[in-house]
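In this supplementary section we document a worked example of the pipeline. Step one takes a protein sequence of length 357 as its only input; no multiple sequence alignment statistics are reported here. Step two produces a three-dimensional model, which step three serialises into structure tokens for compact storage. The input and output of this example are shown verbatim.
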Amino acid sequence: MNRFGNDVNVNLWGSSHGPYVGCIIEGLGGGLEVDSELMREDMSLRMPKGRIGTQRREKDEVLFASGITEGVTNGDPISIMIANQDVRSRDYEQFLRRPRPGHADMTAVLRNPCHDIRGGGMYSGRLTAPLVAAGSLCRMILRDDCVSVSGFSRAIGGVVDHSDRDPEEVVASRGFDTRACTSSLDSAMEEAIIKAGSDGDSVGGVVECRIDGLPAGVGEPWFDTFDGELAKAMFSIPAMRAFEIGDGIWSSGSRGSENNDPFTIKGREIGTESNHHGGVLGGRSSGMPLVFRCFFKPTPSISKMQRTVDLTNLEETSIEIEGRHDPCIVPRAVAVVEAMACIVTLDLMKRGGFIEH
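The serialised model returned by step three reads:
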């Protein structure tokens, strides 16, 4: 239920207000020296920032319970644990009876009346913390094979970045709280988030991610395609509502003469003049940058009065959500998208024999 991946796989566990969240990642092999600084940086990018994130502030210190010996992987499954310390469970008791619109409360309780409602339980975005840690380990292995994964905020709250971004600009987004690529976009996106929050509301947006350095041929046809595996991983991220690769939706309204990417010879490598296909053909990487986008809905926890139902007496009622919530999860979601892309990429490269670690 909470497991995905094949040669590299992750088993996720925990709940938002339990003592820990964590995962077990298998398939990384032994001999990888853990880059603690990169791990801390990746984890920090998932943390809320300033006035644009929740006031729940966790330290997110990663504890390796097994699989790491003196900073080096030993080949055993790696158990990752992250403590939950800043919790306020009393804010959630009412949601067992009156589910929050846009949340998993209703479907969770109807399926399992004993569901841990605190903080959303196992459905909470809190569980993305160990996924970022697992993704960081995968990133270290990919880096050794010159494969890089980087994302940024393409749009937030109606503020859209219309420029094509090269890898250096995308990596530079790590220096901005909103994960925008420029200071002006960062300011505009931050203003949109703060305004929504001050209105008791929230905004959504778009995360764009690119994978550079991939050899051609990574991925499997039909049911284990690169784009299909990515889509499955991305749809597991809370609030992610749509996925597209390359020109995506636009390509459905174009002509073949516009959408096809002519093949060329670059040095001694086969490439394409353009990248409308987004780096995947027939479910396998083409050797061009793999570019995809994830569309996130506005955070459903808002302080405005909303209509709901009382599950006890089956009557319509209303609810006002209190507590600490992100007015926009997009800036923090960029790190999660990157992490999931790292896990999928490493898994498919190992499955295809492109990497042996």
